[in-house]
Amino acid sequence: MVDVGGSVSPRKRRLSDTSTSLRRIRALSFAAAPNLPEPRYLDPSHASSGRFQLITERQREKVVKYINELAEDFELCVQTGGLACNYFDRYAASLGRDPSRTYGEKRHVQMIASTCLLLAAKFFDRRLPPLSELSKVHHGKVSPAEFAILELEILERLRWKLHTPLPHAFTEHLVTLCWNAPFTPAIEERTAFFMDLSVYGYRFLSYTPAAIAAASLVTAWTFSAENGALGEHVGTLANACELSPHELQECVQHMISYYQMCFPDAAKHVTRGALFIPIQTRVADSPDTVSTEGANATMSPETVPPETPTAELTTCAAHAGIPKGADPNRLSPDSVLLFSPADGGA
Prior knowledge:
Number of domains: 2
CATH class of the largest domain: Mainly Alpha
Number of helices: 14
Radius of gyration: 21 Å
Strand content: under 5%
CATH architecture of the largest domain: Orthogonal Bundle
Structural class: mainly alpha
């Protein structure tokens, strides 16, 4: 409908915007589909069938942590680390299908992870880690020439397909579909937090980037007590991701469970009605620091008990507002991948 002044009515403009956003979501999903990691490549059934496994699920968490810490050290974008993890998963999965693999030992894992980050930075970021600096990270045990050789090896296994839309690319379009839904700065921050956290969980490889983005948004609403948005928009988001509402809710539940496993204090406060335990920032009165009902203090990654099984993950949240070097106990990049027997290998 057009008013007398010739302008498009708000309703028609809204319908046009949602139609455009849905087309873009489908286009991004189509572009991402060929370049998604094999979702079950670390399952025990694969190992029992004789397929080679470079790492275990537990060790993968350490690899993701290493990649993100290295990206932080080089001041790269958060998404660069996520893209590097996509490359690593795809490359590691390809090794299980190829008996003639060159880089198939655990001593190569850190080198592979570093090279995946280098590739992601070249493709996505404005900064580029110099090969000489990467060599220093490895204490000179890997030369720039060796990085260059592995880079070509990874590119060939990935068939030079480096463009993979990440969940962050879907957020704006999903929010447009839910035109009257709340999307405050705090909700936006929480959505980004859960998208980044999902990279660490092996289970989330089973979901598309669109599904991760939608589940992160729903999870952010859940933790923000936006019950009205949950009831009204879950079906819309599920349809946009080509999922059933039940499948989307299942992804949300996985995300909540994983969050509570990484931040165990969160589970203690669920019964008090405070599901989300915000991460302490260094900025006073930050809009992203939300008071927790029934709790006297917020939780930061540094306060996670060291005996927590997934304590390594808790410094991963790039959207936690913690500046570089804030954690004095953070493992140095070269020590992260020293796997212990409990991790499933030396």
